[in-house]
Design goal:
With 88 residues, the chain is of the alpha+beta class. The chain has 1 helix and 4 strands, in the order E-E-E-E-H. Strand 2 and strand 3 form a beta hairpin. The protein binds zinc ion.
Length: 88
């Protein structure tokens, strides 16, 4: 049970329909859906686990957050600790 097969119908978010629609599995990787096809508009895309892709606004925010975090780490003097390697 739980094993996915090609052609199985699963829910996923379609960027064309902009909502969760029925999709057929068109590609499997390790028993998990890798690519799916929207049964409403027949658009093929990577399986997104029903997650809507981030909007441009969200992408910008994520970028800004990452930058802020990097700056905070730099100003706090956080450095990557070099791993002890075998010395000769
Ligand atoms: Zn669609």
């Amino acid at each position: 049970m739980g094993e996915k097969r090609l052609g199985d119908v699963i829910d996923d978010h379609c960027i064309k329909c902009r909502r969760v629609t029925n999709h057929s599995i068109v590609s499997l990787v390790d028993g998990e859906a890798a690519k799916v096809r929207c049964r409403t508009c027949y658009h093929d895309h990577d399986f997104r686990h029903e997650q809507a892709p981030p909007t441009k606004k969200e992408l910008k925010k994520m970028e800004a957050d990452a930058l802020a975090a990097a700056e905070a780490a730099a100003s706090a003097g956080v450095e990557a600790v070099p791993e002890e390697t075998d010395r000769v």
